[in-house]
Write a structure and sequence with these properties.
This protein is of the alpha+beta class. It is built from 7 helices and 4 strands; from the N terminus they run H-H-H-H-E-E-E-H-E-H-H. The mean pLDDT is about 95.
Length: about 220
């Protein structure tokens, strides 16, 4: 709770804050030698990419666990997680051949229909940029699969690295679950996805100088 409160108003003792408070001479990160801001620690340090991937996959795993129980037998789910990945893409070659790997691809060949879910866990000030970037990245893919006769829906979801889920993302998540005739309360989304992102960021922050990081199990609630 203390981490969440201080992270939300940027009063954690990052080196940039410590220098501003007169507690430290050097404001740089010990791992990448750039100015250590909270944004740098939680999302932008090139030495912590494996940690950001672990946080992303923890949130992605939670989304999958919310979706899987409501899928009918007509749907087949593919996801960019080690235990759910087959081959080097999440889109089966008998649907479309591509090197792109959307986080979740749900296919119903009887309809036929393809649902693509792409997750990002950005710093809260970058939520819209992340959303626009993913829409642009997958727009051509959506058009090309539609030309093959599939109905395609793309859901770009952003969960803030400090555990915030904006109104647009709540609407997007509700639309996704409504498509499968499932009612998932907003309180469930916040208590699972937001809390997972926040706890992962807590771990990333307090292990920021740990050079011996090895991915722990996914955070779950």
């Amino acid at each position: 709770l203390q981490f969440a409160a201080n992270a939300s108003i940027n009063t954690l003792p990052t080196n940039s804050n410590l220098k501003r408070w007169g507690k430290r001479i050097n404001a740089n990160c010990q791992m990448c030698d750039s100015k250590e801001t909270l944004l740098r620690v939680l999302n932008n340090c090139p030495q912590k990419l494996d940690r950001y991937t672990w946080r992303h996959n923890s949130v992605l795993n939670a989304i999958i666990k919310l979706i899987q129980p409501v899928l009918s037998s007509d749907y087949k789910l593919h996801a960019d997680l080690p235990h759910l990945m087959k081959g080097n893409t999440t889109i089966p070659h008998d649907v479309y051949v591509t090197n792109l790997k959307p986080d979740i691809v749900i296919i119903n060949k009887s309809t036929p229909e393809v649902i693509i879910v792409e997750l990002t866990v950005p710093f809260e000030s970058n939520l819209q940029d992340a959303h626009d970037r993913k829409l642009k990245k997958y727009s051509d893919l959506v058009n090309e699969i539609e030309m093959l006769g599939y109905k395609v829906q793309l859901f770009c979801i952003e969960v803030g690295s400090r555990g915030q889920l904006c109104k647009n993302n709540i609407k997007c998540m509700k639309k996704l679950f409504h498509h499968f005739k499932a009612k998932v309360p907003v309180s469930t989304l916040r208590s699972s996805l937001c809390k997972i992102a926040l706890v992962c960021s807590f771990i990333i922050y307090y292990s920021k100088y740990d050079v011996h990081w090895s991915d722990p199990s996914y955070v779950e609630f």
